Amino acid sequence: MNIKFKTTALTALALCLAGPALAAEITFVSQGGAYQEAQTKAILDPVTEKTGITVKQDSSPDAWPVLRTQTATGKPIWDVIDTPTKDCIRGGEQGMIEKLDIANMPVVAAMPAELRNDWSVAYEFYSSVLAYNADAYGDNPPQSWADFWDVEKFPGTRALRNHPLATLEAALMADGVAPADMYPMDVDRAFKKLEEIKPHINVWWTSGAQSAQLLADGEVDMTMAWNGRVSAVKAEGAAVDFTYNQGILQYTSLCVLKGAPNRDTAMKFIDAAMSPEIQANFPEYIDYGPGNPAAYDTGKISAERAAEMPNSPDNAAKQVLNSAEWWSSPEGDKALERWAAFVQQ
Amino acid sequence: MSNASTPEERRERRMILLLLAPALIVVGLLLITPLVWMGWQSFRGPEGFTLAHYARFFTDTVYLSSFVQTFRIAFLVTIAAILIGYPIAYVAAKSQGIWPPIILGLVLLPFWTSVLVRAYAWLILLQRRGIVNTALTKAGVIDQPLILVNNEFGTVMATLHILLPFMVLPLYATMKKIPAELEMAGASLGGGGGLVFRSVFLPLSMPGVIAGSVLVFVLTLGFYITPELLGGGRTFLVSMLVSRNIEIYNEWGAASSISVVLLVMVFAIFRLASMIIPFERIMGTK
């Protein structure tokens, strides 16, 4: 009787202690598809293993409108989102994103200042690169945006993204602006340079899949495209290639919704997800680079694989780091507004 | 004629109302309510009532050019649908036996395929290394591939393909009702085939032309997927302006105002058309 009572008491005590640990869960939201599947294996499962945090998943190709709706109710159901950095910043400025609890996030605090801000931290890297048809150009492919603009030396059909982000940066590089002098951007100069190439652009693409298809089908001979999209069609055997030279390095970030149901766990989750060891898993599953550059020092990423990654030290040095701060500023909004008028006329 | 109605009449009216109730509730809940909501939102900004969303029609040059381009494409599609649809409907209406159902069946066949699939089909057909360009190059007709898609041409082509049945069916219905005797009478008065067609058949088929044109024109105004996939980014129609406004201004009101203006224009078109032929005929109920 006594023993049985003790056992029951101990079990109850154990349950009480385990309770909070069992309740440690968050809802993580990314953009779905192969990209989110890769994250599950590379990041989410290892974080659960390391910290015991249960990760529930949801996905949304564009989290921004959902973020607005959920925080408007004051009772969001999502905790952590992986979204373009711009959304974390403007969301933070509009009171929809929690500030990072940086004092309790040693890993995030140790990251380079340019890769984090009050609300978010760089999570994975991709790049807007110059991609081309390998058959069309043979041994002398275009290697810079100046080449892309040079229709005499590099004839052929061209495409660009129907969006000013990265496109304006490319135009300025074609006009001779050095990556270090990119921001704040000279928008007038960029649009002036774009007017030059506009008559030679066959397609202004709207989705990543479309850009890859245009290239693989031979509809265009060169285009700006996201590195992962190009390498995917290349792996399927299409005669395409790309260069990281003058690529526009972009990243998505992790941030926490204002009033998130599991705010503290969410902060712990982010710090664990950003650890170099776990971040170093990214290249194993997908052609996107770890948000934490320290991952390249862990020895987990081979030299060959690093050479294929958008933000490995060697590749990052050839590119310009996109400024999410600039794009979420009023100047960035104005550039976005001006875009449609430019494309249409 | 008097206002006093018999109990039977009143009961019948109640019965009709009761039978209509489910339809009225569905329309009210799923159509009227969202429309009113949309109209209300178009006047709402962060600080309450605003005309800012409508003011953009006069300040943002993209608005005007989007509306102009949309109406131009709708016009081109409508003209092309008349030119292609009229002969088809004519042959279907004049043929005998199993031919009418076969012709109409062929017109309707693509109608049962997804719009998305058809857009991609046109892409495959018309692109630079597509079937059309390859065939023309191999046949020696052209040296350089023609640019047939990712522009306004591709958009018009695919939209026309999707909307052609909306032209052919009202035309066919109208032509079927034209008594053959009238043409015989015309011929008996000494008119040749061409003259009888021009002075008898063509005028009598005009209600069908107008009905089909209104349908095709109005439906083109709201197209989204086709210009998005086949327009190459250059065809920037009103529907795309709506989605762009949500992206740029972050406000549903900005998008709602465009929808409201487009809706008013569509109503105006129907009103104009109904001055020529009754509304019921456009919709094919009479």
Short description:
Chain A has 345 residues and is α/β, with parallel strands linked by helices. In chain A, 46% of the residues lie in helices and 19% in strands.
Q: What's the helix count of chain B?
A: 13
- Largest chain interface and its two residue counts? A-B, 20 and 22 residues
Give the SSE string of chain B: HEEHHHHHHHHHHHH
| Helix content bin of chain A | 40-55%
Under CATH at level 1, the class of chain B stands as: Mainly Alpha
Let me know the largest β-sheet of chain B: 2 strands, antiparallel
Strand order of the largest sheet of chain B: 1-2
Overall pLDDT metric of chain B: 90
The rounded distance between the terminal residues' Cα atoms of chain A is 88 Å
Number of domains of chain B: 1
Please tell me how large the radius of gyration of chain B is: 24 Å
Low-confidence stretches of chain A: 15-21
The CATH homologous superfamily of the largest domain in chain A: Periplasmic binding protein-like II
The whole-number mean of residue pLDDT values of chain A reads: 91
Sum up the overall morphology of chain A in one term.
globular
- The general outline of chain B is flat
The biggest beta sheet of chain A reads: 10 strands, mixed
How large is the radius of gyration of chain A? Answer: 23 Å
CATH superfamily of chain B: MetI-like
